[in-house]
Amino acid sequence: MTLHTPTTEPEACQVVADAAGRRTPLTLQGGGTKTDLGRPAQAEANLSSAGLTGVTLYEPAELVIGARAGTPLREVVATLAERGQELSFEPMDHRVLLGTTGEPTIGAVAAGNISGPRRILSGAARDSLIGVRFVNGRAEAIKSGGRVMKNVTGLDLVKLMAGSWGTLGFLTEVTFKVQPRPERIATLSLPGLSDARAVEALCTAAASPFEVTGAAHLPGERTLIRIEGFSTAIDYRLGQLRRVLKGFGTPDVIEGEAAADLWRGIRDGAPLAEPRDRAVWRISTAPTMGPGLVEAIAGALDARWYYDWSGGLIWLSTPATGDAGAAAIRAAVARAGGHATLIRAPMEVRAAVDVFQPLSEPLMRVSMGIKASLDPAGVFNPGRMHAGV
């Protein structure tokens, strides 16, 4: 497969122009850490953002950072850390689950709308994404958004590109709002709760006024509630949360690197990383529906799981044979409401089942219309999310 690694936006435009003229499909990628996520590539050449690197804008006082799409995520994180700041949405590192190498890039974070446990308070990556530059399928360089959050009339290309997984355009630069790093982080740990009681505890904590930034349950182990902020405020909020949660047991408090490692594992899917021969699903639903949804799936499949986002995000592993449990999982999700994405599975399984949540007929028509508008020759990541798109 031919590899194109442009170092400037005009070079990227030329690559896309040539591909569109020849109707040569392109696989888009950043650091290659998520190449095995989605339906198998249906392309003849690879367009990489690896040559588009560097922070292009950083205004700490305005809490804004911009970088070229191929910039390693760790570089952005380190730049922010020097000024006591961070990305608010705590992006996941897929290398843990997928067993890939390379470096996650800031452009891929935007393209995949990659978020972590703090989403329950701070929102997803798309909620912090305020500007993009990208090359569309007509080989035009497009700029949308800027340095500040603003109301948008019409088609919001910034939000549209987030979560499109490279099917609508080749990102060349992204701009995010950021936030100050907290002075202190503390986690309450409750042992011995069932799934249903754990989700009740998590929802109780999340509904309190004490700004929970992480709410996860590891079945058979513990239920975790995280808060962040100034040290003196943390002491007060810990006391108040203990009071709110007194009906669920007496929690321990975990801080420091032990707690950080715990939340990194939850963020990155570590509890389900092994054994490697199992498929892994990411299921979103209403938090209160989570335990019942899992019970329905576990009644039909050999399943393992844990919960994030107060029970609204379920990480679940199944045998990677047959359809990897797709029929049972999608039936359960249809009854409970929500959507399911197959994050890890062998190529033959990903080619045979819907990896992303199937779209209704009206939504598919809208998606195909947007695709045709931005990528009329259909050269960008064809079929990665849905067959024919």
Automatic annotation (TrEMBL):
Ranges of residues in domain FAD-binding PCMH-type: 1-181
Gene3D superfamilies the record matches: 3.30.465.10
Tagged with keyword Flavoprotein: yes
Keyword terms: FAD, Flavoprotein, Oxidoreductase
EC number(s) given by UniProt: 1.1.99.14
SUPFAM superfamilies (alphabetical): FAD-binding/transporter-associated domain-like (SSF56176), FAD-linked oxidases, C-terminal domain (SSF55103)
Any one GO molecular-function label of the UniProt entry: glycolate dehydrogenase activity
Signal peptide from the UniProt entry: none
Protein name: Glycolate oxidase subunit GlcE
